[in-house]
Amino acid sequence: MPDLPSSLAPVVVVGCGVIGLTSAIRLQEAGFETHILTKAMPADTTSAVAAAVWYPYLVYPRERVLGWSRQTLDTLYDLSDDPATGCHITTFIDLFEDPIPDPWWKEAVRHFRHAATGERPPGYADGFAVEVPLVETPVFLAYLEQRFRAGGGRIEMAEVTDLATLRSPGRLVVNCTGLGAAALMNDSEMSPVCGQVVRVSNPGLTACIADDEGPLRVSYIIPRTHDCILGGTAVKGLWNLEPDPEVTDTILRNCRILEPRLREAEVLEVKVGLRPGRTAVRLESAPTESGGGLIHNYGHGGAGFTLCWGCADEVLALAQRFIALISTAS
Length: 330
Known about the structure:
alpha/beta, D-Amino Acid Oxidase, Chain A, domain 2, 9-stranded mixed sheet, 6-stranded mixed sheet, 6 helices, 27% helix
């Protein structure tokens, strides 16, 4: 563990996935001197495995998620104007066997409708067709890292095993360790949600499509500029990062049923990621005995890219409150 005196970094963000990077950027660009500690660089985090289309998946509680997801959607729309960010706007079609009511998150998006007959494969009676941001993770994570470094931020490799070692009077620690918080915080509410994906060449697809609850569940197709991410699985409590060949075959079979053009797509890569599942996102300030501040921001399930900027805005508000309190006390 590196020695980090108070003069080096008044704010230390632990974790460098999409949640840690966006939190660090919001703090830095608001005037906080910010330093990131991480055991994995962005390209090696769970965030790098994500399909990363805007969708509040496996994340709670809904009343808080709605606001965070709306704020993030707005920010990603703004970023989509710059191709260097890897963000663009796409159509996402969620399929259902039977007619269903509008989803709880409908008011968070800008354009929502029920999918037309021609947009649904045979056997699906209903579907949502939503305009949403899509993030190409290799490009977006590199953009976030460069943006943070360009602002003077430092990223240092270190595995933090005890947040108390970072605390000191006047320092703020922001815990964005994702699934690592299970051990770091002894948080029994944390549990992995294992997801396997297959990356294939893109045969000319543009719209995303998914079956989360129907006969092919869980299946999804996320077309990107040069490839497609096909999924998937959502196995709660499974820590295994080794791809399962049988799961790969099932993903390919199901996605080719949803979109026959994928039969000609070349398989490029198979990956497994562990989503940081939790009964509720933990985003709050916590008391410390050191005179410093501590903010937790973890447990975003399958929606890290859907909530990241909204949660980062709340981290900033909590940080500003911390500064106001210590200024008043002094």
